[in-house]
Amino acid sequence: MTGRYRVTVTVEGSPLMHGWWGSEATARRKFTTWVGEHSSRTGARVTLTDEETGETLTEWPDPG
């Protein structure tokens, strides 16, 4: 792991790709980019997690 903030893309619950960034702002930009790149995939989910606290900062689609 090279950073505190992890962005993960899963499809139908299986991991597709992930990356770590030290800057939350950079990780949020990557999150937005990956949502755009993978939003057409059936069952896709993109999650931004703070690995230090374990908190999910945001996810797409919104589970709400």
Which features characterize this protein?
4 strands, 64 residues
Order of helices and strands: EEHEE
How many strands, what sense, and barrel or not for the largest sheet?
4 strands, antiparallel
Q: What spatial form do the alpha-carbon principal axes imply?
A: globular
- Could you tell me the mean pLDDT? 95
How many beta-strand elements? 4
Distance between the termini: 29 Å
Q: Which stretches are poorly predicted, pLDDT < 50 over at least 5 residues? A: none
Structural class: alpha+beta
Instruction: Report the β-strand fraction as a percent range.
Output: 35-45%
User: What topology, given as strand order, has the largest sheet?
Assistant: 2-1-3-4
Helical content class: 10-25%
Number of domains: 1
Give the C-alpha Rg.
11 Å
Number of helices: 1
